Amino acid sequence: MPESRRLPTGSVIGRLVLIAAVIACAAAAFVYTGGWFSPERLTPDKLVDALTPPGGAPPLGHRRNHAKGVCFTGVFEANGVGSELSHAQVFARGEYPALGRFNLATTNPNVRDGTVRVRGLGLMISTPDGQEWRMAMIDAPVFPVATPQGFYQLLLAQASKDPNAMPTFAKTHPEIAKFSNWAKSAPWTGSYAEDRFNSLNSFIFVDGSGAEHAVRWSLLPAAQPVVVAPEELAKRRPDFLEQEITERVRGGPARWTMLVTVANPGDTTADPSQPWPQDRRAVEVGTLVVREIEAERNGPCRDINFDPTVLPSGIRTSDDPFPAARSSAYAKSYDRRTAEAEDYPRTAPGGSQ
Amino acid sequence: MTPIRRFTPPQRFLHWLMALCILAMLFIGVGMVSTVAPKYLTLVSIHKPLGTLILILALIRLAVRLRYRAPPLPPDLPEPLKLAAHLSHYALYALMIVMPLIGWGMLSAAAYPVELWDGVYLPSILPLSDRLHTVLWNAHYYLAFLFYVVILMHVAAALFHAIIRRDGVFEAMGPALTRDKVGPADRPVVPLQRSG
Q1: Judging by beta carbons within 10 Å of its beta carbon (0-12, 13-18, 19+), is residue A131 exposed, middle or buried?
Q2: Among A74, B85, B92, B151, which residue carries the largest CB count within 10 Å?
Q3: Structural domain includes residue B191
Q4: Cβ of B156 under 8 Å from any chain A Cβ?
């Protein structure tokens, strides 16, 4: 190195310190962005960890929530009417392959079917343009809480040994009253085929002219619901819901009408704990036809994440904060359970747990 | 004295453009996996097209590099530093090309649609497989941190050349505005003319 470029030793040390400081700041910025300095940040790991039953181990290899379920295949028959609300191909008159999963809102994959209050339906509809519409719905008419942070607090309260935890939670989150009333008073049925499933979250449909419509949607069962007392359901076989739907569909397809409800201007879309008034315009856009019940264990649903933000062009998320939170947490659940494939009981004896 | 040989203008342009893209990519990545807030979806929707862009730019850059090569390192640079320089550049090129492919493969192995923007998708490049997904997820996650560490070493080395050794290595890739220190003498500053 030519002498003229040599720096005095003191100057070299000063400049080395400067370089070290630049690198340290850059490293700190990265770590900060990752949330290591933000213990209050609600991360997908925290949310998924909070689902693990208190003092228990997570259901290795299974979905972290809605862990018990049974897979199905069928079609979505679009009647074409939905095209006035969204230009997605799934609403153009036609028949599109559907894959879905009836499930129970529980973290226990071996739970007795009759003991779980909330039932769900995950669905994925594929269209010839290569797009997919995925959703995960439940039978409750409203979500228990208004925000993802509130849901996290609810999980903590439910897991708490403090007898005042839930009453305190209900005081600070009064919106849970609507859900609680439903849970206490709504009739139970003995079949997934007799249940109504609701998106709860609001989404935006974009029609062919580019106009936007805030919507929620539901699947209304074609089968007449038969009310069964919960005490009676608790006595049934542990897997009676799976067995019932399997036998029913063997005898012929089960059907649901998809009803899209359109918000009026001013209806809240950001809070799924608040139902919209009953008089809102509702449009029947098609029919879900469940043709085959598929094995849960080695079936086509096992490695599918029913992420409600996988949407075709013509549907997008709204200001409802839940789809983003669900997407983030579902991905975490998926990453964990697929990494636990060794623990998943793939080759179980057919028919029973 | 021999004039400093610099990278060609297309190489310098690609370097600085990709530096911006890759830094943004790494920060978006580490940020998005740590939140459930609505910005999660925004960050994911940037991460996928930006990763695709980086893959395309990296392939172009590799071709440009093979065509135009790199200026030689200073002959007086100690051998271990020369070795480190060469190895870190192999690592950077490998990561620029492999990271987007791993991300794409990881999403494919989970049967997630890889949406670039509204209604435009990349095709799936792998079959649905929980084991493949796990291997690729781990690779994507840990290589991201390795990538950032290699970038920090690269920045430290660049600054070492720029402000301590002052040997022209930084200027070889420096922004076009960098003055050529061993070129012609600096133009004298023209005093501002006071206008009447």
Answers
A1: buried
A2: A74
A3: no
A4: yes
Do residues A67 and A113 touch, judged by C-beta distance below 8 A?
A: no
Cα B90 to Cα A202, A329, B97, B154, distances in angstroms: 48, 36, 11, 12
Residue A29 predicted with pLDDT over 50 = yes
Positions of E strands within chain A: 68-78, 94-104, 119-126, 132-138, 188-189, 197-198, 203-206, 212-221, 227-228, 254-262, 282-294, 315-317
Contact indicator for A105, A118 with CB cutoff of 8 Å: yes
Our measurement of the distance from residue A159's CA atom to the centroid of its chain's CA atoms, rounded to an integer in Å, reads 20
Q: Tell me how far apart the alpha carbons of residues B154 and B81 are, in angstroms, rounded to a whole number.
A: 12
The per-residue pLDDT for range A66-91, each reduced to its tens digit, is 999 999 999 999 999 999 999 999 99
CB contact under 8 A, A16 and B164: yes
Q: Which residue of A has its CA nearest to B122?
A: A130
Work out the number of other CB atoms within 10 angstroms of the CB of residue A251. 7
- Chain A residues within 8 A of B36 when measuring between CB atoms: 42-44, 47, 148, 324-325, 328-329
Indicate the pLDDT class of residue B195, thresholds 50, 70 and 90.
very low
Record: contact A23-B26, CB cut-off 8 A: no
Give per-residue pLDDT as tens, A142-173. Answer: 999 999 999 999 999 999 999 999 999 999 99
pLDDT band at B190 (very low <50, low <70, confident <90, very high): very low
What whole-number distance in Å separates Cα of residue B170 and Cα of residue B163?
A: 9
For residues A85 and A294, the answer to whether their CB atoms sit within 8 Å is: no
| Residue-number span of the structural domain to which B126 is assigned | 9-173
In a domain, residue B196? The reply is: no
- Contact of A121 with A219, CB cutoff 8 Å: yes
Query: Cβ(A87)–Cβ(A205) under 8 Å?
Result: no
Give a yes or no: residue B25 inside a domain: yes
The complex's ipTM?
0.94
How distant is the Cα of B31 from the closest Cα of chain A, in angstroms? 5
Residue B31 lies in a domain: yes
Reduce the DSSP state of residue A161 to 3 states and report it: coil
What fold is seen in the domain A53-141+186-343?
Catalase HpII,  Chain A, domain 1 (2.40.180)
Spans of all domains in chain A: 9-36, 53-141+186-343
Residues of A in contact with B41 (CB under 8 A): 309, 317, 323-324, 327
